[in-house]
Each structure stands twice: as structure tokens, then as C-alpha cells.
């Protein structure tokens, strides 16, 4: 794109990140995600999803949690597959409090930032009922 004088936008970056992530090239996907942010391009929920899951694949769970929290702060809705990927990784690591919070947040339909040193009984209150929300 640069050779044609074009600057990549969020859609172009997201498409490439997805291609790397789908082809087991997690390191390349994460590097491209970082380049996207360095270029001042705001990631969409799909770029966040793929980057979070790639961090999990690379066993960089702390980075995955930090990126999930960035997703929450940026108001780019974390999709269900991001939450499921992160929940499973937290459960495997024995971080049951974080896994429980992700489950609760998904049921509520409201995402909150995750704190690594949260007590194992951490929960999040729902703002209203969870009727019609996506289930795990």
C-alpha cells in the first residue's frame, strides 16, 4: 500500500491481523497490531479480538488481559469469542476469580476491566437483568 501512496486503515490492518491469526502466525499478528497502534490507527473490536487471542496462544496472558482492559476502556465492545478465549486461558492458569468475572460480565452484557490480583471470589454486579444475553 505504501508503494502506491496509500496509508492502511483499520479495515486493512484488521484483515491482515486476522489472516496471520488464522494461519497460526500469532507473533506476526501481534506485531502488526502494535504497528497499527503506532501508526495511530484505532483498532476495531475484531483487531482487538485477534490480538487478545494471539497473546493467549503465545502464553502471554498478562498482555492479553491488559489488551482486554484497553478494549473495555476504548468502548470497542469485546465480542463473545474474545471473552471465551480469555476465560479459558484464565481457568487453565487457575485464575478462577478472573474467569468468573468474565463469565459474569458476559451474562450481564457489560464488560469491566479485569484486575490480575483480584480475589478468587470476585464478581461483577449486573446493571439490570441478563435476560436475552449471550450464554456460555
Automatic annotation (TrEMBL):
It comes from Prorocentrum cordatum. PROSITE patterns: PPR. It holds the Pfam family PPR_2. This is Pentacotripeptide-repeat region of PRORP domain-containing protein. PANTHER family: PENTATRICOPEPTIDE REPEAT-CONTAINING PROTEIN 4, MITOCHONDRIAL-RELATED, RESPIRATORY COMPLEX I CHAPERONE (CIA84), PUTATIVE (AFU_ORTHOLOGUE AFUA_2G06020)-RELATED. PPR repeats lie at residues 9-43. It comes from the Eukaryota.
Amino acid at each position: 500500500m505504501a508503494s502506491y501512496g496509500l496509508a492502511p486503515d483499520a479495515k486493512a490492518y484488521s484483515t491482515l491481523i486476522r489472516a496471520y491469526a488464522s494461519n497460526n502466525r500469532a507473533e506476526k499478528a501481534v506485531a502488526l497490531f502494535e504497528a497499527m497502534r503506532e501508526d495511530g490507527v484505532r483498532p476495531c473490536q475484531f483487531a482487538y479480538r485477534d490480538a487478545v487471542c494471539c497473546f493467549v496462544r503465545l502464553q502471554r496472558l498478562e498482555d492479553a488481559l491488559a489488551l482486554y482492559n484497553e478494549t473495555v476502556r476504548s468502548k470497542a465492545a469485546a465480542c463473545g469469542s474474545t471473552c471465551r478465549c480469555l476465560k479459558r486461558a484464565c481457568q487453565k492458569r487457575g485464575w478462577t476469580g478472573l474467569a468468573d468475572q468474565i463469565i459474569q460480565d458476559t451474562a450481564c452484557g457489560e464488560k469491566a476491566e479485569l484486575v490480575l490480583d483480584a480475589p478468587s471470589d470476585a464478581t461483577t454486579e449486573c446493571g439490570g437483568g441478563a435476560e436475552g444475553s449471550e450464554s456460555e
